[in-house]
């Protein structure tokens, strides 16, 4: 007889108005396994996991955990039963320390650990045991995204968990941080814990999981052993068709210089030098990639280009005009599209509707407004058109964008920005959170924009994305451009060396001008 499953979900249903997020899902998780959950954007992965951790209440169905039927009314109740979840967007209070975040709202549950010294000691102990590098006194706002994620994971361990659910944990991590996280999952399992993680990255899913469940349209398609499948088969199961791993594309035909960056220097939000004299040109009809380990000035480069970070010295010239130091609205108005790295901070306004988000920068433009009044019909028609073309899974244009799945929010940002017919498109992490079927579509759209003469600067930590659509790749290290390479996968080693800051044996780009 097979052992009783650790967690059994039976015929779970969840609707949001007319959207069926879970349509009778049954799934079993074994104790001590790493179980990956795959599926297209909006397939219902996050909602399903949120029901297990008490964030969302199912309409119907049963969750049987450690042999008992359970129904959690809040994440706190789930944590009491030793189930923790780390969400796509972290739930930490930025101006508090790590330790303060952990005890926030704990009340009487903290009787056992009733003074701060003990809390700090416990955090240090767990941090050391799992090599998490988390300092209890560190303030959340001073930490990088990768560090904040480790703080979230340690928070779950601090409260004591047997089951850890991670929602797209590697989307925001560098390759090195990803390796570290995957190793951590292995360590947790060795300590008797069970891990469920959601991902769109088939290679990492294949690397660490024991079993993989694929969801589509609110249903479970299948659960497979990792040994019985491969990336191509998984992609087909997810999307329902074969996904091309290589995009066909013709050579670029670069024209005039659209964007010219000259010796740009600026500091990060925390006041440290971030760009140390960056110079580059982007011509019409080409996609220039910026590769690099994140934290080497890419964030500051994109923020400075769209007026969100002050420039210390140097110039940014767009279509022959100096735009250095202009405010974001003025830069926007000069035919610059921006697909930001952090969509919640710079891309969308969560409490607004899809329609309102679609015209964020055009709310006083014809046909969307006349004499300061919004025209609902053209806004709705334009939004509906984008939803249809980009296959954005949504209920209605008046729906709040916060109700969309993460990948569908990203698709809306990409669709909105490309629809503005910009001369220059600045992209930082194009496909973050987007499923592999939609990724193919979004990358093809970028190539179409290139062929229509747009100038595109694509900053990415995903080398595959850079190889797939860029015409040349520049490498950033310590706030400088260290070199340039063609998008040739055979030169991956050279690219890796440049990303690590080593310039020996690498051909330098010709001097600009
Ligand atoms: N609070 C909500 N109100 C309305 N609809 C919602 C809400 N939360 C989720 N949905 C809808 O439920 C469906 C499933 O969403 P879910 O976030 O689970 O998708 P996902 O598989 O995690 O997608 P992604 O890969 O893009 O993160 C989507 O159509 C989404 O718009």
From TrEMBL:
Domain ABC transporter per the UniProt entry, residue ranges: 7-242, 259-503
Source species, domain of life: Bacteria
Subcellular location: Cell membrane
Tagged with keyword Cell membrane: yes
Keywords, comma-separated and alphabetical: ATP-binding, Cell membrane, Membrane, Nucleotide-binding, Repeat, Sugar transport, Translocase, Transport
UniProt entry tagged with the keyword Endoplasmic reticulum: no
InterPro entries named among the record's database cross-references: AAA+_ATPase, ABC_carbohydrate_import_ATPase, ABC_transporter-like_ATP-bd, ABC_transporter-like_CS, P-loop_NTPase
Gene3D superfamilies listed in its UniProt record: P-loop containing nucleotide triphosphate hydrolases (3.40.50.300)
Family of the protein in this entry: Belongs to the ABC transporter superfamily.
Protein name: ABC transporter ATP-binding protein
